[in-house]
């Protein structure tokens, strides 16, 4: 079974639609358990929005004063610590995700799959190359954590109507 952690993109008050598109991507992996991680100074409002996304099992909220600005140097160590036990860590292929996810991959000691545009299996993905003129199939070793950015233009937003549990977590980073 795949256990997927999605890093939520938000502005401190509202969840970016890219997060629900990442959930749609993750839901294409058969038998996936999907959790969303909200890194904020006070993530209660954003967590409530994430909990309403259909397909999300749990929302983890890591409140930390250092999260006032979404700096990858601050967020990546928190994501890497909280990714323990997950088989996949996804972020949106936005400026936020493209900045954050390579650092997360480096901290976890794995390569990153960029711009997932299709899912063929838990470790097999499609991604565009040559300015989108060709599509490449990428296979990640089954024993490695999959760290990836999701091309949000390739997925519809997941529907609202979920009621995921919200859990406060300590990222252990000051």
Topology record:
Elements: E1 3-7, H1 17-27, E2 33-40, H2 44-51, E3 56-63, H3 72-82, E4 88-92, H4 95-108, E5 112-116, E6 118-121, E7 124-129, E8 134-139, E9 146-150, E10 165-168
Parallel strand pairs: 1-2, 1-4, 2-3, 3-10, 4-9, 5-9
Antiparallel strand pairs: 6-7, 7-8
Helix pairs in contact: 3-4
Structural summary, described in words:
With 174 residues, the protein is of the alpha/beta class. The strands form 2 sheets. Strands 5-9-4-1-2-3-10 form a 7-stranded parallel β-sheet, sandwiched between helices. A 3-stranded antiparallel β-sheet has the order 6-7-8, with no helix packed on it. Strand 7 and strand 8 form a beta hairpin. The N and C termini lie far apart (33 Å). The protein is globular and about 40 Å long. Helix 3 crosses helix 4. It contains 4 helices and 10 strands, in the order E-H-E-H-E-H-E-H-E-E-E-E-E-E. 25% of the residues lie in helices and 32% in strands.
Number of helices: 4
Structural class: alpha/beta
Number of strands: 10
The shape, in one word, is globular
What summary fits the major beta sheet?
7 strands, parallel
Contiguous uncertain segments of 5+ residues: none
**Average of the residue pLDDT scores:** 95
First and last CA, distance: 33 Å
Strand content: 25-35%
Integer-rounded radius of gyration: 15 Å
Order of helices and strands: EHEHEHEHEEEEEE
Give the strand order of the largest sheet, numbering strands 1, 2, ... along the chain: 5-9-4-1-2-3-10
Which bin fits the share of residues in helices? 25-40%
């Amino acid at each position: 079974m795949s256990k997927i952690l999605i890093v939520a993109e938000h502005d401190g008050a509202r969840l970016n639609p890219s997060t629900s598109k990442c959930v749609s991507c993750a839901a294409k992996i058969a038998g996936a358990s999907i959790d969303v991680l909200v890194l904020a100074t006070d993530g209660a409002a954003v967590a409530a929005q994430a909990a309403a996304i259909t397909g999300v099992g749990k929302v983890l909220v890591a409140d930390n004063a250092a999260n006032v600005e979404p700096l990858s140097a601050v967020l990546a160590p928190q994501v890497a610590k909280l990714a323990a036990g997950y088989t996949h860590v996804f972020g949106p292929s936005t400026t936020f995700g493209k900045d954050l996810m390579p650092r997360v991959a480096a901290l976890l000691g794995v390569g990153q799959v960029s711009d997932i545009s299709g899912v063929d299996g838990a470790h097999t993905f499609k991604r565009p190359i040559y300015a989108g003129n060709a599509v490449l199939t990428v296979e990640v070793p089954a024993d490695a954590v999959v760290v990836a950015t999701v091309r949000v233009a390739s997925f519809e937003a997941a529907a609202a109507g979920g009621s995921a549990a919200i859990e406060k977590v300590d990222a252990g980073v000051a």
